[in-house]
Amino acid sequence: MGHHQPAGTVAVDAPVRRLTAADLPACLALAVGRDWAAEERKWGFLLEVGEGYGIDDPAGGLAGSTILTRFADDAAAISMVLVAERHGGRGLGRRLVSHALERAAGATTFLYATEYGRPLYEKLGFRSVSTVRTQVGRFVPDGTEPAATVRHATGGDFAAIARMDAEVFGADRSRLLAGYTTFAERLMIAERAGRIVGYAGMWRNVDYVALGPVIADDSAVARALISSLAADVAGRVRIDLDVSRPELLTWVAGRGLAHVYTTSLMIHRRQGFAGDRDRLVAPLMQALG
Predict the structure, then answer these.
(1) Which domain CATH number covers 246?
(2) Average pLDDT of span 124-143
(3) What number is the average pLDDT over the span 44-72?
(4) In this structure, which of 130, 191, 285, 289 has its CB flanked by the most CB atoms within 10 Å?
(5) Which residues are CB-neighbours of 63 under 8 A, at least 6 positions away?
(6) 244: which DSSP letter?
(7) Residue 32, by phi and psi: left (phi above 0), alpha (psi -120 to 50) or beta?
(8) Is this structure's pTM higher than 0.85?
C-alpha cells in the first residue's frame, strides 16, 4: 500500500515553480490569507526585478511563495516567504527558502525576519546580525536648516547613484536601481561643496509612503534627505532604521514616526556584507536591503 495523500493537501515533494507577473493575484491572495496587506505595487516590482518561486495549491492558487533577488553574483535577498495557513507545518516554507538558497549559488544571502520566522531561518543556517525598528506616522518637519543641499535626481545622476550604492552595498545593484527610478515617487540627491554625499528615494505602498533607500555620509545628511522627502507627504510615512542609529531613531520619533514592529536582519552562514554599510541608513525595502 502506498501513502495516500489527503484530498486538497500539498504533497511534501510538490514541485517548486517559477512565478511570473500572471501569478500576482495568487500572491496577493496568499498574503491576505496570512493577514498581510495586498501590496500590489510592491509584489509587482519584486516579481519584475527578482525571481519568484511558488508551490501550487491543488485547490487553486498558491500554497506558498518566496522571492529571490540577486545583485550581480555577489549578493542576494530572500523575501515574501509565505505559506497558506491550511498548509502550515508541512515544511513548505523550509522547502521554498532552501530552493532560493540553491538558486543564490553561494552569493552573500540575507533576509529580514520577524520573531515568528526566525527559528526556521536559524535552522537553515541564517544568523542575526542586527535589529531593525520600523517607524510609521505623519512626519512633522523640525524647521531646521538642512546640513546639505538636497535636490531632485536627474538622469545624469544615475551613474553616480549606482556607484555610491555599489560602494555601500558591496554589490552592483544598477539593474534594480534602473527599475526603481520609475517605481519610486521621488528620488533625491544630497550634495556638499558640489560632491554627492547621499541619495534617497520614496515609494508608495497601500496605506503609507516608504522612505528608502536612504544612503548618507552621516546622520546630518540623512536628516536632510528624510526631511526633503517626507515634509510634504499628506499621509503616513514609514522608515526602517537599525537600532545602531539611536540618534536617528530619537529624531524620527520626535518628528511623529512611532515604533510599530521590530525585525532581525539575518545573513546566511559565515558570510559577511562586503560594502560600507555605515552609510546605509534605511533599506530600499526590507525585501531588497
Answers:
(1) 3.40.630.30
(2) 96
(3) 96
(4) 289
(5) 10, 14, 54, 55, 56, 57, 83, 84, 87, 92
(6) T
(7) alpha
(8) yes
Question: Which single residue is written with the C-alpha cell 493537501?
Answer: 9
State the residue range of the domain holding 49.
Answer: 17-106
Report pLDDT for 1.
38
Domain-embedded: residue 8? no
Report the pLDDT value the prediction gives residue 8, as an integer from 0 to 100. 65
In tens, the pLDDT along 144-198 reads 888 899 999 999 999 999 999 999 999 999 999 999 999 999 999 999 998 999 9
* Assigned domain for 149 exists: yes
Q: How many CB atoms lie within 10 A of CB 114?
A: 10
C-alpha cell recorded at residue 279: 552609510
Q: How many structural domains are present in the chain?
A: 2
Same domain, 206 and 245: yes
Residue 156 in domain: yes
Residue 283 makes CB contacts below 8 A (sequence gap 6+) with 112, 212, 213, 240, 289
CA 146, 148, 152, 158 torsion-angle sign: negative
pLDDT digits (tens, 9 = 90+) for 207-264: 999 999 999 999 999 999 999 999 999 999 999 999 999 999 999 999 999 999 999 9
Domain match, 84 and 169 both: no
Distance of CA 227 to the CA centre of its chain: 21
3-state secondary structure of 285: coil
What does the pLDDT read at residue 146? 86
Residue 9 inside a domain? The answer is no
Q: What is the DSSP string of 20-83?
A: -GGGHHHHHHHHHHTT----HHHHHHHHHHSEEEEEE-TTSSEEEEEEEEEETTTEEEEEEEEE
> In terms of DSSP bridges, do strands 126-137 and 237-242 run parallel, antiparallel, or are they unpaired?
antiparallel
More confident residue, 10 or 275: 275
DSSP, residue by residue, 86-147: GGTTSSHHHHHHHHHHHHHTTSEEEEEE-TTTHHHHHHTTEEEEEEEEEEEE------PPPS
Estimate to the nearest angstrom the gap between the alpha carbon of 157 and the chain centroid.
Answer: 23
